[in-house]
Amino acid sequence: MSAKSRKSNKGKAINRPFDPQIIGRARRIAEKYQVILQFEDGEWYGRGLELPNAFGDGKTPDACVKMTREAFAAVVATMIEDGQKPPLPASEALRDRQVNVRLTTEEKARLEESSQQAGFRGVSDYVRFRALDPRVLSKGG
User: Fold this and answer.
1) Which top CATH class is 15-91?
2) Has this prediction a pTM greater than 0.90?
3) Where are the domains of the chain?
């Protein structure tokens, strides 16, 4: 990536209007991303599987999903403007490698409960999300 593209969004407002073609493309991509919902303190919160640092909220699950997808679209539009490639939707990514982990019965039960409470469809998605979360990776794992 060139220095020019790295700096292209520096100082720009987050809520600025995007070029209509870019935001349209970003919304089409964002529509395919998985939204993970959580209900807390009377409010719904959403985050992305593919974009774990993009969040939304709402009074209803539908409102939350809509706001979360708008956050996805803004992130993807910014990536496109900067010449970056947005992540593939999880449903389209080819997963051709497997990792086996041995757990105690208690560890497995705790992991299943944690994944369910976090709104994941299964342990694999939960473990993949947690293990590849950039916030965790940037802290040294």
Assistant:
1) alpha beta
2) no
3) 15-91, 98-141
